[in-house]
Specification:
By secondary structure, the protein is an all-alpha fold. It is built from six helices and no strands.
Length: 93
């Protein structure tokens, strides 16, 4: 269940990446006009804080889901400093 919840957070995080923003704009849909986009972007650090607690979970499915959920959150400039800690985890998976 935890891995599935982390997968859901990963899905939400992927919808507000820099790439998703560029795609939305290129299609004529300014993301700032879509409140869920703006709201998820605002709470990316809080989502990262919650998800990062699962990065060392004993269950490999939970660990992998947590890593996957963290990666798209790292587009947030407030989280740039956290990128370095994920590199070793990405190399292991």
């Amino acid at each position: 269940m935890r891995a599935e919840l982390l997968d859901w957070l990963d899905s939400a995080a992927n919808e507000v990446t820099d790439e998703a923003e560029a795609t939305s704009r290129n299609c004529g849909f300014p993301p700032e006009d879509y409140p869920p986009f703006v709201q998820i972007r605002e709470i990316r650090p809080a989502i990262f804080a919650a998800v990062s607690h699962c990065l060392k979970d004993p269950d490999p499915h939970v660990r992998e889901a947590a890593i996957a959920a963290c990666v798209p959150l790292l587009d947030d400039p407030r989280l740039f400093s956290r990128r370095r800690e994920l590199v070793p985890l990405l190399r292991k998976t």
